[in-house]
Task: structure prediction
Amino acid sequence: MKNKTKLYSLKLFLILMPIVLFTIVSCGNNDGQDPSKFSGTKKNDVANDISAFELENGFGPVKQKIELGPIDPKLVKQGQTIFETKCAACHKLDEKYVGPAQRDVIKRRTPEYILNFMLNPEENYQKHPEAKKMLAQYLTQMPNQNISIDEAKAVLDYFRKVAEEK
Ligand code: HEC
Result:
């Protein structure tokens, strides 16, 4: 009788053990997926799964192509002031400094990428291959400058203008 109980417990253990292990393992997997579920805004932002639009234009509030009108001199002026107060500590137009020279940034990147990067550097460092590459090269993360989208657009017109000047 005693032996039978022992055998029964052993069988029960052998049956239950794989179930317990499986539950632990699958819980672990779920944990791994949670951050991407909550941090992202798009369905396909699981690591390395990045859409063609995101690859070209980065991650941020700009989610479709924008129409660029003619360069607006008023915006250029506003953008220049913002650049000189909030960006020039790390960026110059023609020389590499803490960050890359910015006169030709509009030739290197799409306008949408520039806006998204200015407004949302953190997410791009996490997800965008180009931003990761830059970080590996410059070894400094650009802090979020907390500018508004209108201010970012003014800086963009400033970048468009200075690119024309050379
Ligand atoms: C504390 C330093 C710092 C400040 C301030 C700063 N940046 Fe940057 N920025 C960097 C660094 C460093 C990089 C590139 C390396 C990297 O991404 O780690 C960079 C990259 C960029 C890029 C991407 C360039 C490319 O070729 O991909 C843009 C656009 C940019 N900055 C715009 C701005 C603007 C606009 C401002 C001001 C509103 C600003 N930055 C303020 C340090 C700074």
The pocket of heme C is lined by residues 82, 86-87, 89-91, 98-100, 105, 108-109, 114, 117-118, 131, 134-135, 138, 140-143, 145, 147, 155 (CB under 6 Å). The radius of gyration is 25 Å. Residues 27-46 have pLDDT under 50 and may be disordered.
